[in-house]
Amino acid sequence: MKRILISSAWLNPQRSYDVATWKKRSNPFTVNAPITEHFGLRFLKANHPEITILEYPTGDQFINEASKGWDAIGISFYINETNDAVQMAEIARKYGVPEIWAGNYGAMTPAIQNRFDKVFIGWGELPLAEELGKSPAELIHPPMFMRIFFHGLQVQTWGVLFTSRGCNKSCTFCQTPRFYRKPYTLDLSTIDAVLKQYRAAGVSQIIILDENFGYFEDYTREIIELLDRYRLKWNPMTRVETLYKNYDLWKMYGMRGASIGLESLNQDSLDSARKGNDLTQSREILRWMKRDHLFIQTFYIIGFEQDSESSIRENIEELRHYHIDSPQIQILTPEPGTKLFTHIEQTYGMTTYDYSLYDTTHLVWNHPSIQARQMQKLQLWANDRLFTPMNSIRTSLKIVSQSFYAFDKGLKSVVSTPLWTGNINSFQVPHRELIKYGSRRGDHARLDLSDNAS
Ligand code: SF4
After folding, report:
1. pTM tops 0.85, yes or no
2. Per-residue pLDDT tens digits for 3-59
3. Architecture label for domain 4-138+419-444
4. CA of 283 to the centre of ligand 1 (A)
């Protein structure tokens, strides 16, 4: 049997590991949600217990581990982690590791694939089974957690759920359809088993990280009935039209918030991206969620070719009225393999192929009307407009009221999940360190906003 180590990219202080405050200015009421578990690696470990995984190691931890005589080392990375992944591969080679693999979205970049011996696109359980000489089996869903902190105190624990993988849409900027190819569901039996574990652990709610929860309609109905049966509250990641169609039903079955790909409030930009969002529905959904005090996370892109500085400012001012709890403002970043990348490269030209800058906080191409530095200032300005102390107070109140609900229903809210959940041979960097990593560092943080503040 091959000895296989699969590692995420090592920690880099230029990147943020706190999804709640990603590239935003912290305030006294901010909560933190450090990413402590690598969900892709947890799935691999649960389905192939014979491998070893390494989640968010420091550089020294990886180097130490790489020297231990592995038959293969796989590196799972995103595009902005490419430079680190290539360095990790070189280190593994120095230690004589015969096979170095690349996986996750970062592996989709053709220009770097020759730095690895094998490239795995899509979720890795199946190709890994082949590598290990095993037959394919039904996927097992491991228990996985996200923890919410307030000034270092853990205030909630969420159970993480994936009910399906992939997406049938074809937004021009998105790598997901090519990454997963065809969307598919996980077997209900493994969802049932993991929900039972979450219920027994007393998590305060479930966060569903499907690309497009609700796409498989009958299946989704069974999932929400299961969630209801276990009396679990939940937040799905979904599309605007899916949420619009199911809003009342899902709320009745325990939905407490949602993450939606709003992407833009500029119709021209949405049309060019073939996003398919109806802005009337987007606005109505945001109004409903604000009215019902649900958690709102929005993914929003600035810097489409149709965007101008004034249209961005106007749209962000509108967004401000919806009291978004977790606004994720990203600078449009064409990613290799997408229609957008080909279009931008041919029409405007890229300004850099340094993939560490493809992190949605840098403009990496020649925008027709906004300079790179100005785009970064706009991103920071947008975050400052949306992520205010008042906004953080509202979010904290939602968390407090949900925690009261959790206590009332016999849920524990704060769950101390074992660090080694699922018997994973993994390194864990303390939460406090993860919260600090990448909090407004580098060029981005040094920008002077004064000449553009409004
Ligand atoms: S942006 Fe969302 S809806 Fe569009 S293709 Fe990607 S995952 Fe699907």
Report:
1. yes
2. 999 999 999 988 888 888 887 888 888 888 888 899 999 999 999 999 999 999 999
3. 3-Layer(aba) Sandwich (3.40)
4. 19
Structure tokens at 196: 């039972």
Q: How far is the CA of 133 from the centre of ligand 1 (A)?
A: 34
d(CA 46, CA 32): 27
Which CATH fold topology does 145-402 show?
pyruvate-formate lyase- activating enzyme (3.80.30)
pLDDT, tens digit, 9 for 90 and up, residues 44-95? 999 999 999 999 999 999 999 999 999 999 999 999 999 999 999 999 999 9
Partner residues linked to 207 by β-bridges = 160, 235
Q: For residue 429, what pLDDT is reported?
A: 75
Q: Give the domain ranges of the chain.
A: 4-138+419-444, 145-402
* Residues within a 6 A CB radius of ligand 1: 167, 169, 171, 174, 176-177, 211-212, 239, 261
Contacts 24+ apart (CB under 8 A), 26-29: 26/439, 26/440, 27/387, 27/388, 27/389, 27/392, 28/389, 29/389, 29/392, 29/393, 29/395, 29/396
